[in-house]
Amino acid sequence: MSESKKVCVIGAGSSGIVAAKVIAEHGLDYEVFEKGSGIGGNWRFRNDNGMSASYASLHINTSKEKMAYSDYPMPDDYPDYPHHSQILDYFESYVNHFGLRDRIRFQTEVQSVEPGESGGWTVAVDGPDGRKSETYDAVLVANGHHWCPRMPEPPFPGSFTGRSFHSHEYETFEGFQGKRALIVGIGNSAVDIACEVCRVAEKTFLSTRRSAHILPKYAFGKPIDHFTSPMSAKTPLALQRKFFEVVLGISRGSQASYGVPEPDHHILQAHPTISADLLNLVGHGKIRMKPNLERLDGDGVVFVDGTREEVDIVVYATGYKIRFPFLSQELLSSSANEVELYRHVVHPELEGLYFLGLIQPLGAIMPLAEAQAQWIGKLLTGQAGLPDRDRMKRAIEEDRQSTRRRYVTSKRHTIQVDFYPYLFQLQKEMRRSP
């Protein structure tokens, strides 16, 4: 009987809590292990699990409607783009509303997940009562992928005498007053940090290799992600690109006219950057755009165009590594910052091992993690089935090749998905006969 199965969920962030809720609805017994003392994962500022990348001023860059779980909308009095503290309050309310808190084991770190001697998975944890092990029929990995900083690879040659750190460590602009700051990268975190520190720093530089399409948070008075829908996602990609080019051309104009280089790729060919402030601040001269670094040079840096700037602080907003410290790399057969999973969820050879939220969508992760959990629930209760191993492996390779054709080559895009097409794919899997 499916009711006899016991499930382990690793992590009580946005993916872990929705997994717990969906698994409970399927009548399955479960436990959630959370390293920190509270829920929220990445959205808990200064989370004592040491993994949160939130900074004090962080607001979401997808609208509240697109980010909310399907059966629990965010409060009406929330702004279109809530502050991280409001998102955490929303998660706390979600956990309380669905009665999930009693099944979360806080301050409990998963040390290892290994195949059980008689099937299932043996999970060893360290918690308030010491080290314990227990066997589960299934393990749902929801530990997130924005916690293990990735520095430039290979490192820039030379040496730097000032202060340097990864954006994961950034909390506030304290320490940047009157300094000359360089932010390396042009993703959402890089741009947020540059826009904040430039208001107090003497000079702020933003370095990028290929630039990015800068999308405003609003277009024609509407959140920018309100222009996407299930219907629009079914139109040819060329038409979607043309639509966004027209919208941006009318509402924003050319980003190069502000001083931000045009990207070397088409819109929707890489993850865009959402910012209401960058273009204006570059236009005002508060942020100075620079190309990629060539080398570090004592109290300054040299860029690939031959220019040199003296800087006091370098912030590397260069992304994250995908890591699962409780799983052996041999077990996962992962490489190049990607993991071979069927539909980004199911390991084709390790029955009962599932992953949630291990995606980077053009949109919010939360509704997709909810759909992933629903699919897993159906698999565990026999309401849906999987293809055989060889078919799953072929599908994994097809998805990989499709991603490489669709997006620019980057370790950032190994887990990239388009929101609605991926949601449709999950819904189709849920209808697959056992």
User: Could you give the count of β-strands?
Assistant: 23
Shape: globular
- Largest sheet properties: 5 strands, parallel
Mean pLDDT across all residues, rounded?
Answer: 95
Number of helices: 10
Q: Give the CATH level 1 class of the largest domain.
A: Alpha Beta
Radius of gyration: 22 Å
Q: CATH homologous superfamily of the largest domain - what is it?
A: FAD/NAD(P)-binding domain
Q: Write out the strand line-up for the largest beta sheet, numbering strands in chain order.
A: 3-2-1-7-21
- Helix fraction by DSSP (H/I, runs of at least 4): 25-40%
**Uncertain stretches:** none
- Total number of distinct structural domains: 2
Distance between the termini: 15 Å
- Name the structural class: alpha/beta
| Fold-level CATH name of the largest domain | FAD/NAD(P)-binding domain
What is this structure, in a nutshell?
The chain is α/β, with parallel strands linked by helices. It has helices spanning 14-25, 64-67, 84-97, 188-197, 237-251, 278-283, 329-332, 366-380, 389-406, 419-430; strands spanning 6-10, 29-33, 104-105, 109-115, 121-127, 130-136, 138-141, 158-160, 163-166, 180-184, 203-207, 214-215, 218-219, 222-223, 273-274, 288-290, 293-298, 300-303, 308-310, 313-316, 353-355, 360-361, 416-417. A 5-stranded parallel sheet has the order 3-2-1-7-21, with helices on one face. Strands 9-20-10-11-16 form a 5-stranded parallel sheet, covered by helices on one side.
